[in-house]
């Protein structure tokens, strides 16, 4: 019998694992092994819920990269739930973000794998979700570029760059809130 270290919920072939607040060298190996074990147990989709994760270092990001490689080899779809910008930035540094679908909330990640009839009651349609993912990813990349420029900017320009970063963060938050929070209220 398997004993999961982190909470895992199975729905059909989808496994949803909830990761802790801090992911670093002290627990990255354990997280990697649990993710690999879930893939090896036959998950058709592995949803890694990092909603509570406030910090993730390189060791944690590398654990996710290893899980991605195993998922590809096993034909398992890997989806990440990462609402925290700081965690998204760390994951972006690994090159994982263009390879794996990243969702702002758990419901959207789960709905992405449901048949169309079920997905329409669980969140936005997949085409809309793909469009949303692309928009958020582009905004996120623009934010990373601005942050890189911030270090080389003159003091007078820093203020404008910081303001642009706030606008980008607000836009991402507004998209997430309007699509996923409003969408749930309408369906109740």
Structure described in brief:
The protein is α/β, with parallel strands linked by helices. Helix content is 59%, strand content 14%.
Task: Please give a structural write-up.
This protein is α/β, with parallel strands linked by helices and 188 residues long. The protein has helices at 28-40, 58-74, 85-92, 106-111, 116-122, 126-152, 155-187, and strands at 8-11, 14-18, 22-23, 45-49, 55-56, 77-81, 101-103. The strands form two sheets. A five-stranded mixed β-sheet has the order 1-2-4-6-7. Strands 3-5 form a two-stranded parallel sheet. Strand 1 (8-11) and strand 2 form a beta hairpin. Helix 1 (28-40) packs parallel to helix 2. The longest helix has 33 residues, at 155-187. The chain is globular and about 55 Å long. The termini are far apart.
List keywords for this structure.
alpha/beta; five-stranded mixed sheet; 14% strand; disordered C terminus
- The DSSP helix count reads 7
CATH topology: Transcription Regulator spoIIAA
Contiguous low-pLDDT stretches (5 residues minimum) are: 115-125, 181-188
Name of the CATH homologous superfamily: STAS domain
The main sheet orders its strands as 1-2-4-6-7
Shape: globular
Looking at the chains present, what oligomeric state does this protein adopt? single chain
How are helices and strands ordered from N to C? Answer: EEEHEEHEHEHHHH
Portion in strands: 5-15%
Mean of pLDDT: 81
> What's the end-to-end separation, in Å?
38 Å
Helix fraction by DSSP (H/I, runs of at least 4): 55-70%
**CATH class category label:** Alpha Beta
Number of strands: 7
Q: Describe the largest sheet.
A: 5 strands, mixed
Radius of gyration: 17 Å
What is the architecture at the second tier of CATH? 2-Layer Sandwich
Q: What class do helices, strands and sheet pairing give?
A: alpha/beta
